[in-house]
Amino acid sequence: MDKLLIRGGRPLVGEVPISGAKNAALPELCAALLTADPVTLHNVPRLQDVATMLRLIRNMGVQVDRIANPDCSVADAAGIVRLDAGGLSTPEAPYDLVKTMRASVLALGPLLARFGEATVSLPGGCAIGSRPVDQHIKGLQAMGAQIVVEHGYMIARLPQGCTRLRGARITTDMVTVTGTENLLMAATLAEGETVLENAAQEPEVADLAEMLIKMGARIQGHGTSRVRIQGVERLHGCEHAVVADRIEAGTFLCAVAATGGDALLRHGRADHLDAVIDKLRDAGVQVAPEEGGIRVRSPGAAQLKAQGFRTTEYPGFPTDMQAQFMALNVVAQGTATVAETIFENRFMHVNELLRLGAKIQTTDGRVAVIEGLGGAAPTGARLSGATVMATDLRASASLVIAGLVADGETLVDRIYHLDRGYDCMEAKLRGLGANIERIQ
Ligand code: EPZ
């Protein structure tokens, strides 16, 4: 099991390329199932979750070719993937693949829309929460699908004699990112108009819609809470570049803020990170768009002020940035309160940060009060390196940021969690001057 060995205390300086967004690439790979024509996706990040999704759709009989070099070089030559679902034979997503990645549920809408049937394993829960898919099911049923859950599988089909889903007005009970994406993809081939109320506004949803429009879909309002889709008979192929990953960019912003330094995040989209950048500026970090990317300068965490925040749906503060910003608060000055409103168990990084010497108190697993060590620095208490364990994707990133600041060596174990969602993170951090290496 791979580990990351980090020797803290180095500022991060230089340039780093931000890869394509995991949470856009995953639905966009599934969008290729909607057409018999070839689809080419550019800027596909080299991630474990992407590899899992490619295995899943290959398993269905889709022709998949990775065109660029798959090795973990930091070069911009990001992954290009060519998909041809013309020969798709098995509209199924089996348990052994779905259990490792919940986003496999994104195959449900496209398979149902194109083939009129789909068998997709119910995704189990995961470390950060139960994560049901009841809204995906409810929405597809509103579009005419008959879905039964048997032996842990969602078995979906169209009513006898029906050849297409039918458009509907759907209001989800809460904002759901992949729920919106599943229904959006299904609606592109439905008969008539679908209106998604309470739709997720994340940039990854808007990027998926842009790709679907290139395929011939008729969509308005994507990126807002009301999306209108006029169904069409069929979609054709397209070429599309995956939007830059705002969570990877936000993670690097927090890392440079914490260690101090001066870096250019190439391809990063500052306009997708307003809530995070506002908080970083309030903390005392300089952040601004520059050369098609984001410039970040920081005097180091001990000079920064810890910031309170609540996670909410986009465009609010993203839950996927909560753990990383908490690591920054841990080493900044002052006390801050963090509230996690989206997932019920997304504080697993707290216990590991405590092992490094952080001062955090949590109540009911949804609110954490952080007493920043910055005030005591440079004489007082600081984080001290230790062996810590990654528990989920963003918690891993939080531990890496803490390790970059802690005195001495930090060994982050179980970094397969990190590899799910970060493209060559240690190589990118080394490129900024960090002392970090992967050990088996
Ligand atoms: C997406 O997950 C992201 N994953 C997550 O990123 C992200 O944390 C999450 O959105 C919130 O922004 C992908 O896009 C692949 P939701 P998703 O449906 O779609 C409840 C990362 O770190 N809910 O928006 O699964 C749910 O339990 C990952 O990159 C239902 O109750 O999240 C949660 O409390 C982690 N029923 C809330 O809604 C449903 O049918 C939001 O979940 C669907 C969701």
Automatic annotation (TrEMBL):
Location of this chain's protein in the cell: Cytoplasm
Q: Where is the active site?
A: C126
Q: Which residues, by range, are in coiled-coil regions?
A: none
Which residues in this protein are found as 2-(S-cysteinyl)pyruvic acid O-phosphothioketal?
C126
* Pathway participation: Cell wall biogenesis; peptidoglycan biosynthesis
List the EC numbers from the record: 2.5.1.7
- Residue limits of the Enolpyruvate transferase domain? 7-429
EC class, as a word, reads: transferase
Can you provide one Gene Ontology molecular function annotated for this UniProt record?
Answer: UDP-N-acetylglucosamine 1-carboxyvinyltransferase activity
Q: Which SUPFAM superfamilies match?
A: EPT/RTPC-like
Q: Which domain of life is it from?
A: Bacteria
Question: What's one GO BP annotation on this UniProt entry?
Answer: peptidoglycan biosynthetic process
Q: What does the entry list as the binding residues for phosphoenolpyruvate?
A: K22, N23
Tell me which residues bind UDP-N-acetyl-alpha-D-glucosamine. R102, R131, P132, V133, D134, Q135, D320, I342
Gene Ontology cellular component annotations, sorted alphabetically:
cytoplasm
Q: What is this enzyme's catalytic activity, as reactions?
A: phosphoenolpyruvate + UDP-N-acetyl-alpha-D-glucosamine = UDP-N-acetyl-3-O-(1-carboxyvinyl)-alpha-D-glucosamine + phosphate
Which keywords describe this protein according to UniProt?
A: Cell cycle, Cell division, Cell shape, Cell wall biogenesis/degradation, Cytoplasm, Peptidoglycan synthesis, Pyruvate, Transferase
- Entry's family note: Belongs to the EPSP synthase family. MurA subfamily.
Free-text function comment from the UniProt entry:
Cell wall formation. Adds enolpyruvyl to UDP-N-acetylglucosamine.
**NCBIfam families annotated for this entry?**
murA, PRK09369.1
Quote the protein name from its UniProt record.
Answer: UDP-N-acetylglucosamine 1-carboxyvinyltransferase
